Amino acid sequence: QEYTCIKLEVLDWSDLAGQTLAAIPALAEKKVFLVAATLRPETMYAQTNCFAGTKLEYGLFQSANTDEVYVVTERAARNMAFQSLSPAGGQLSKLGSISGQALIGTKVNAPLSCYTGGVYVLPMDNVLATKGTGIVTSVPSDSPDDYAALRDLKKKSDYYGIQPEWVNGFEPAPVISTSTYGEMIAPALCEQMKIASQKDRDQLAKAKETAYKEGFYNGVMGVGDFKGQSVQEAKPKVRELLISQGDAFAYAEPEGVVISRSG
Ligand code: ZZB
């Protein structure tokens, strides 16, 4: 799989993360990014938040650009090292580690997002340790999984242990429109398929399939630098734009191949 990795710069650590990371003085001089792997760079204009897995463990890894540190799973860091994304020689340079739970509530900058003041790291049940970086950027207008999870968090912020201000005001934002589903394909599919929560895994898998196909073959950009162009046309252009701005990089992942035995 050829992903685009989006660099979400940390603006404010959560209290817990701040306490944990105070023990690593080297971080003070670095820019730290949560790095999210996506197949949909063209949707980045509508990012509302970012997801981490509360049961996952993340590392802070020095990137090839030594001013920068990436927060990803160790498995992803190893894959990155094979792709010359870490310092010389394919070695990992790990500055520390942090739990997904501690990351919740951290404020990050989401490149291109209409939420320009930053978005929050929130918990999601279904973040897989075995895919991408373990960090997922959330686009509830176009991703049924993201819509269902964000809606759960808004309904039950207490239960999920998050502060209401981390989700209030962060509504799905229009980015792509299709003639069949309008400009909010994920909410439309979740309603049509009666998806009640992020726990409806089977229905969500079907909704995701439909959203991918509809978006790719029939989608038109409604906002941003390539407004009016088809998604097929705009997708590689948005990707290049993000990469040229230093907000993203290419990241490939061999499908079904176990690279790391330790992770
Ligand atoms: C933003 C985005 C916007 C995504 C969208 C999808 C959609 P796939 O399809 O299964 O190969 N993702 C990335 N890493 C993880 C992970 N570790 N655990 C769970 N989900 C993850 O997976 C690729 C997509 O799954 C990625 O693209 C990411 O969400 C998420 F509008 O990034 B995407 C219809 C989907 N729309």
TrEMBL record:
It is found in: Cytoplasm. Belongs to the class-I aminoacyl-tRNA synthetase family. This is leucine--tRNA ligase.
